[in-house]
Amino acid sequence: MSKKKSELKADGFTVKAAMKNSAVVGPPAAGAFKERPSKPTNFRRYYERGEFPIALSHDNKGNSITWKVDFEKMDYHHYLPLFFDGLCETAHPYEFFARQGIHDLLDHGGPQILPVIPQLIMPIKNALNTRNHQVMCTTLKVLQHLVLSADRVGEALVPYFRQILPVFNIFKNKNKNLGDGIDYSQRKRENIGDLIEETLQMFERYGGPNAFINIKYMIPTYESCMIN
Hints:
CATH architecture: Alpha Horseshoe
CATH class: Mainly Alpha
Largest sheet: 2 strands, antiparallel
Helix content: 40-55%
């Protein structure tokens, strides 16, 4: 009776060769870029209950938000984290209200923003961890706005780089290579690799003296935009 596998002897070990016509299957894909579904957000729950002081407004420029409360009287510790929680939303109208609401709050928050930074880290991390292209691009643009929204916000983010930057490191080089073609995503600022580089540079510029070394620790391939 013939053997189905041949045997090779070397250095005292017996190695069985694979069967004829068999295929070697490689390890499964790691799935680093695979999109991950997000859980229902508190933002959506509050919106559906009508608990936000906002309404949809239409004009010749498109849709916008009308606020029913002055920003000076707004409880930023309550509302800003809730709107950041909505970064995970991709469906209309939740995505629109969350995104536009954040930008409005950052435009008018001033000194109210800095004390709320610790409450924003988990919503930011959750949004980035979805690996969803739309959500990530929106979140990166929000982070850039956040850094510029008030004094010392960039410095306040540095201790949280270990929570924010791991996904940056995964997607940093995820740029579209179209050769001589036109990358329309660049016009709309939807190229994740470019947005990550822009955001890291802003983190370094506004993060104070410890920003670069903390970025470099999490993203070894990052090159300073300030050191000649």
